[in-house]
From TrEMBL:
One of its GO terms (molecular function) is ATP binding. CDD domains: ABC_Mj1267_LivG_branched (cd03219). This is ABC transporter ATP-binding protein. Keywords: ATP-binding, Nucleotide-binding, Transport.
Length: 259
């Protein structure tokens, strides 16, 4: 069954039609990127899926269940995880402690006293850190980590909620180019291995063309193109209104590096 289905999503802010009849589907294990220029409606679309915004029209279903207009907490309980552009971690806590807190929250145990909490879900937290390549740094305070490593911990925190669908809003923002590619490769590996669907927005075209299975191109609230990276790259309308020269180079680099 289709994991995520968005049908006819529409959202208006005053005179601005931020999303117009946006429809797409996403399967488990698939990486779907939403790209487009500033103000295209990427965040609006994203927020209608995650429950932060109620669509004026349209429907969102998760594994066949209607989640349209549900508040974010309810959407999260249905199995939709989210990572944020800005780190949502407790900086003075250890890496391990942060993931433990996420597991405690997922299991609805937030009333535990702190000393008890620190003994809980230790092994599960370490296993999650291992999955994102951060087990060796489990004891360090988050505040001491390099930015790319914070992003990995954020991914472990999102995975702590055992999501079926992961929403990632500009996951590589603020990272160095080499780190970006490593993070997206990690996300793609986990998504494919565990059949988690990933919907992401991204301004870095290298990251998109190298790691997305499919791409949606939004311009002024409307989908102007969709398809595989190859199809989107070759679309003359996308070239004209969005990708231009830099996008063509990014797509070409991605094609070469993937043989
Ligand atoms: N809460 C809001 N109130 C009024 N207008 C809004 C609101 N949110 C978004 N908009 C407008 O809707 C349009 C789409 O914005 P959105 O943030 O979805 O675009 P985006 O593609 O995510 O842009 P960016 O790449 O800059 O993040 C823009 O014209 C924006 O100004």
């Amino acid at each position: 069954m289709t994991l995520l289905s968005a049908e006819g999503l529409t959202k208006r802010f005053g005179g601005v039609l931020a999303a117009k009849d946006v429809s797409f589907a996403l399967e488990g294990g698939e990486m779907l990127a939403i790209i487009g220029p500033n103000g295209a409606g990427k965040s609006t679309t994203f927020n209608m899926v995650g429950g932060q915004l109620r669509p004026d029209a349209g429907r969102v279903t998760l594994a066949g269940q209607d989640i349209t207009g549900m508040p974010p907490r309810a959407v999260c309980r249905m199995g939709v995880g989210r990572t944020f552009q800005v780190a949502q971690t407790f900086l003075s806590f250890s890496v391990l402690g942060n993931v433990q807190m996420a597991l405690i929250a997922h299991h609805g145990q937030t009333r535990m006293l702190l000393p008890d909490a620190m003994a809980m879900h230790r092994d599960a937290a370490l296993a999650l850190l291992d999955r994102v390549g951060m087990a060796a740094q489990a004891g360090r305070p988050i505040g001491e980590l390099a930015y790319g490593d914070v992003k990995r911990v954020e991914l472990a925190i999102a995975l702590a909620a055992a999501p079926r669908l992961l929403l990632m809003d500009e996951p590589t923002a603020g990272m160095a180019p080499a780190e970006r590619s490593a993070l997206m490769a990690l996300v793609a590996g986990i998504a494919r291995g565990e059949r988690i669907g990933v919907l992401f927005t991204e301004h870095d075209m290298d990251a998109v063309f190298a790691h997305a299975d499919r791409i949606l191109v939004l311009v002024r609230g409307e989908i102007i193109a969709r398809g595989s990276p190859e199809q989107v790259r070759a679309d003359p309308e996308v070239q004209r209104v969005y990708l231009g020269h830099s996008g063509t180079r990014a797509a070409e680099r991605a094609r070469r590096s993937h043989g």
